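Give me the 3D structure for Probable branched-chain-amino-acid aminotransferase.
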Amino acid sequence: RFAYVNGAYVPHEHASVHIEDRGFQFADSVYEVIYLYKGKLIDAEAHLKRLEHSLNELDMDMPKSRAAFMVTIKELVRRNRVKTALIYVQVTRGSAVRDFSYPENTMPSVVMTARRVAPFDANVPLKGIKVMSLPDIRWARCDIKTTSLLAASMSKQKAQDNGFDDAWLVTDDQFVTEGTSNNAWILREDGRLQTRKPSHEILNGITRQAIIKLAGQKGIEILEDAFSLDEAKKAKEAFVTSSSACVKPVIQIDDTTIADGKPGLFTQQIAKIYADFLEE
Ligand code: PLP
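Predicted structure for Probable branched-chain-amino-acid aminotransferase (280 residues):
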């Protein structure tokens, strides 16, 4: 396995950045996870655009052009001989003497890895997950995809310690923001599909955006608006989306079973629509 570190492809076990790297000390860094499906990079352009958004919000420029990123990603894929994989891309502000304010003229660190995964298959019944609602203790700029992931990590761990698979994060007024690493969706009783609209409170998922478009083309009505935890528990179906999970049914929220505790038919249909898009 090879990783990419600042211009070089190095054996994964030897890939490292300096201890003074601000990504390490301050989580002063942003990332993307891009799905490589059967040799095809899914929505890579949108991921790189979002990477640029994240960097710009931290007063950083893209260290190289999107086209140059694509060349590196493709070379990493080639060297790792992967067909279906998760491509991890991280950019940090670089190394500097430790100081809270941004140092000037640092060389950003750019690292990438490729990890083989099984291809998403919507032709088999999907496995549902159980989610635990937990207070959203993350910061106020969740639209920036930073590696400051401790709050999400703590939440997922807490959910798992309680016998759940993941957490759904909830605001003080009891509205669901998103999962720890995915966007949250419900099928409302009125048949509309609902997911929170983009804001500083969530990451605007690339998979989320793809599904809004694809479902819209199929005539499925979508409501982009916050739903409460209570509404989620009353939903006909629920699921999460992300580049790594694609579409995953939610079959339980806290003590409440959703869709009789089985992955719903509608969710399976959304998964099929997304799988067809991956195959295009
Ligand atoms: N929300 C959060 C907090 C995430 O970390 C992620 C992905 O990692 C998502 C949503 C889904 O985003 P995407 O579909 O672009 O992978």
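The mean pLDDT is 98. Let me know if you want a second pass.
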